[in-house]
Amino acid sequence: MSRRMRTLYQSALATAFLATGLLLLVVAGLHDCAVRTVPNLLCALLLLCGLGLRLLGGNIGHGLLAGAIVFVVCTLVWRFGWLGGGDVKLLAAAAVFEPPPVVPELVLYTSLAGGILALLYLIAGRLVPAPATARPQSMLSRIARCELWRLRRRGPLPYAAAIAAGGICATLSP
């Protein structure tokens, strides 16, 4: 295979890993919003996309180190009850997915998105009336009713949505 063909192949492969990883972040965020869990499979697939990108970029060691550091720090945060276990795995996988120099931006954007999410939930929790007792007619109204129930009881935030927003912003920022 010629050098030019190898470069085109690597570029296409990197684009596929990148697009798949971004899609996985979105799916993880939406899944967390719906049921407040982050499936292990999504984290594992995001990690695989990140490993593929780091292999193509020639910085696999630095990528793994960044992911390990984020995992250890987030595990400590989880021990205090400030972060869910699925969020720890997702953020560590996202740290491998991002180029190592971009990981601080990932953490910053995720923190900002989490702060905005928390503020929205605090405001909505005060403004939302008690849910109606009538049975919902559609799946969307059922999801809305569940979210209202969570708001009234000050349930956990879907922090994977903040991680997804942080990962997308870090990836797309210049």
**End-to-end distance:** 32 Å
Major sheet details: none
What class, by secondary structure content?
Answer: mainly alpha
Radius of gyration from CA coordinates: 18 Å
Structurally, the number of domains stands at 1
Low-confidence stretches: none
The share of residues in extended strands comes to under 5%
**Global mean pLDDT:** 90
Q: Quick one: how many beta strands?
A: 0
Question: How would you describe the shape?
Answer: elongated
Q: What are the secondary-structure elements, in order, as H or E?
A: HHHHHHH
Number of helices: 7
What is the helix content?
over 70%
Please characterize this protein's 3D structure.
With about 170 residues, this protein is mainly alpha-helical. The protein has one domain. About 80% of the residues lie in helices and about 0% in strands. The chain is built from 7 helices and no strands. The chain has helices spanning about 5-35, 40-55, 60-80, 85-95, 105-125, 140-150, 160-170. The longest helix is centred in the first third of the chain and has 33 residues, at about 5-35. The two termini are about 30 Å apart.
